[in-house]
Amino acid sequence: MTERHKPSLPQTGNDEPIVLVVDDDPSVRRALINLFESVGLRVAAFGSASEILQSKPPEVPSCLVLDIRLPGLSGLDLQADLAKANIHTPIIFITGHGDIPMTVRAMKSGAVDFLTKPVRDQDMLDAVQAAIERDRKRREIEKTVSNVRSRFESLTPRERDVLSLVASGMMNKHVAAELGLAEITVKIYRGQIMRKMGAKSLAELVKMNEALGTQHAKRDEQT
Amino acid sequence: MTERHKPSLPQTGNDEPIVLVVDDDPSVRRALINLFESVGLRVAAFGSASEILQSKPPEVPSCLVLDIRLPGLSGLDLQADLAKANIHTPIIFITGHGDIPMTVRAMKSGAVDFLTKPVRDQDMLDAVQAAIERDRKRREIEKTVSNVRSRFESLTPRERDVLSLVASGMMNKHVAAELGLAEITVKIYRGQIMRKMGAKSLAELVKMNEALGTQHAKRDEQT
DNA sequence: CTACGGGACAAACCTAGGTATAGCTCGCCC
DNA sequence: GGGCGAGCTATACCTAGGTTTGTCCCGTAG
User: What's the average pLDDT block by block, 10 residues per block, for chain A (223 residues)?
Assistant: First the structure.
């Protein structure tokens, strides 16, 4: 299970997870790279927050291992910037001299873990595994939702009106009354909506519409 | 807005939020009680984990303010016990001598905040407000879901079979084929399901069924 | 034994959903 | 100015959904 099947060079085009390490201390970077590679994980290392912000976010399940204290932007600042940029790669912090308020802030902002130096290898590997798993799930959800969203965007304004009323359970005649239309018009829009959204039944359509609305409140459980 | 409209004795039967304080130091308890009462919050105070475990959980929005170090069960132990007992009252920890691993563990387990002594009054009040708000939302969701669940439990086994297939978008004739029934039988069960569940449309039924299935993965966002 | 609830089905009947074909106006882009 | 897409509607027709009434079998609780 922990066997290396290939030389595992970080080539593009596969979907092996990758760990992104940000630490200004080259010896720490080296140690983390060795640790992760020893269990067959791909790694990319950076010396500062700005370096990683310039690189494009990977499109495979990944996580960040961040030192709190970094030259320029701190780890916490980087976390905030990534959140603002709508990048949700899970973050594991490491610190030599952190305090509790810092920890709380990081965890409240969604960090997966906050480890103190000296970090035990197993703790780090456990945290990374949990983080990558979290990212995998997030990407899965994100993929299906963005699919639905792009279909939704192909709807005309009027079709969207009809969709929201139909998905709320109103009958065609009531939708028609609500929108000042003839019932037949609603039926036709409804058929177009089903086709454009790729829904094979009303139940599917309702679920898709829910997924669009639920976009705001989401987060996964811990442990 | 912060005005006291009544003498505010903790009578049962209203739905004013309440803060539950657990600290073994009477002077700290006193200070916290004063603080919370000064902004019109109801408070109940306890000296140990076992004391609060014996009292019945309040049925109004509430939160716990826990010292990490307690006689007997520690704050973290209490948190774990409450989780096991399926009691999800949000928790705010306070500590004089906490460390980072402790903080991480508490936050991972869902704590709202983790404050270090000396605690600034405003920080405590902010945390309590956030915690109570979280509990209020959780209770709201819990209320509607348990409503749906109790309706679901009034369904016969066969009706549940039909429900899950109907809610997945299958047509009556396909449901019938799947279950080895006549289409008319499915129609009749379907009508009974709609009545028992109190759904006025298929869309509502689908949403109810989703709510039942989503029971496991839930958590709300932070900040 | 009887009453009762769950499960299953049928005929008859009605309503809601959905498609095809066709036709209309309006604003916009080239 | 002609083509185009969005928006809107009508007629006709078909399928799916849903109720009512009535019937039957079975197991079990009283």
Answer: 43 78 95 97 95 92 96 94 95 95 97 96 98 97 93 90 94 92 92 92 95 61 39
- Distance CA(A65)–CA(A127), nearest Å, equals 10
**Three-state secondary-structure class, residue A198:** coil
DSSP state of B157: H
Instruction: Write out chain A residues lying below 8 Å of B171, CB-based.
Output: 201
| Tens-place pLDDT, residues B164-218 | 999 999 999 999 999 999 999 999 999 999 999 999 999 999 999 999 987 644 4
Q: Is the peptide bond before A118 cis (omega within 30 degrees of 0)?
A: yes
How many angstroms separate the CA atoms of A35 and A38, rounded? 5
Q: Tell me the C-alpha distance between B80 and B66, whole Å.
A: 13
Residue B120 Cα distances to A147, A153, B18, B46, angstroms: 47, 48, 20, 21
Residue B54 and residue B44: Cα distance in Å, rounded? Answer: 13
CA dist., res. B52 & res. B129, Å (int) = 21
Residue among B63, B66, B128, B112 at smallest CA distance from B222:
B112
Task: Establish if B222 touches chain A: CB-CB under 8 angstroms.
Answer: yes
Q: Which of residues 107-126 of A touch B (CB under 8 A)?
A: 107-110, 113-114, 116
| Closest Cα in chain B, distance from residue A220 (Å) | 6
Q: Please report residues of A whose CB lies closer than 8 A to that of B99.
A: 100
- Pull the structure tokens for residue B140: 């709201």
**pTM, whole model, 2 decimals?**
0.84
A68 with A74: CB under 8 angstroms?
yes
CA of A187: nucleotide with nearest C1': C18
CB < 8 Å & 24+ apart, contacts of A111-118? A111/A79, A112/A63, A113/B104, A113/B108, A114/B100, A114/B103, A114/B104, A116/B100, A116/B101
- A7 vs B: CB within 8 A: no
What type of residue sits at position A145?
A: V
| Yes or no, beta carbons of A103 and B103 under 8 Å apart | yes
On chain B, the residues whose CB falls within 8 A of the CB of A216 are 221
* Largest separation between any pair of C-alpha atoms in chain B: 73
As a whole number of Å, the CA-based R_g of chain B is 23
Show the CA angle centred on residue A62, arms to residues A61 and A63, nearest 5°.
145
Q: Would you say the C-beta of B13 is within 7 Å of strand C? A: no
Dihedral, B25, B31, B35, B37 alpha carbons, nearest 10: 80
